[in-house]
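Final report, Chapter 2: Outcomes

The project's central promise was a pipeline that accepts a single protein chain and returns its three-dimensional structure in a standardized token representation, suitable for archiving and comparison. That pipeline is now operational. To close this chapter, we reproduce one record exactly as it appears in the project archive, with the input sequence first and the structure output second.
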Amino acid sequence: MHRIPATTTVAKAHAALRAKQYRAAPQRDARLFREHYTPAGRIPEQPNLTKEQADLLFAAAKGTGTEWSTLAAVAWLDSRWGDPSAGSLVGRRLTAAAWSKYGTDGDGDGTVDHANSADQARTVATYLGTARDSKGGALRAYFGGHNGKALTRRARFLADYFDALGPEAIVTGLEDPATRKALEDRILADPDVEIYEGGRGDIAAGLIDPRVLVSIEFLANRFGTVTVSCLISGHGVFTASGNVSLHSYGQAADIAALGGESILGHQQRGGRAYRAVKELLLLPDAMQSDELISLWDLGAPSFALADHDDHVHIGFTTVSDAAADDDKGSMGE
């Protein structure tokens, strides 16, 4: 995948944006502000896999060519991760023919049991990894029926989101310090995520809200690569309107390119920037940003500002404990 060098339009757009922001607050630097700020409240909760469910799915996917995140997505669409009314965690759509050809012993007891959760999960993973030439083809065959294509799209979307969360956060949530450290390390090591040097320092210092990091990873999964032009470092404390910027709290990111294509000059309907805004609006409630700014107003937290022609801004606020207790999130169809 072609990467945009730092000397191209993306870097120039970033420099121009930074100049505008510093005119608003010439004496203040957001990094210094954030280093003396302790976030209050907590991150909204969302449905998580139990440790037992996660271990089962991770073990089932290993060595099959099916990613754990894809298997987790299929499990969500099959059973909402263990809703008793849905039956098994994953595999309820397996046909007798699929069991006959792809049935696999998942728990090592030497038998293939259609009612065993480990065997069901391993069989689904084997099926998805080998039944068709492409991942999409295997998913469509698994879901079948008149809505197979729609369910396949949902599964691939959820798989990209679950992969962005990572195997730790999908169990513990994003409040756990070890989970946040694992997410930071993963994004810094991801070759598909291009972040300027100051922003990498912000992440390494543990100053960035994990929801921001998940959003960045999600966009990398959806578009192949993502270029981040601003986190905290390089941004003024205040916005041009005089309010304290969410960047100053480590709760915002500016996206300058998607899939190697600069946001500047490419915000047409149906383009990558437009699609990114739409897809971010489809994430679960707990991952909904409070500011989603580009040249498009698509409702909810998204709105248009003319000076966001060169980037998509994603910003989150921190909820109070009382509000977080009321917000469990959803991943409904």
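Archive annotation: The two ends are 32 Å apart (CA to CA).
This record, like all others produced under the grant, will remain available to the consortium after the project formally closes.
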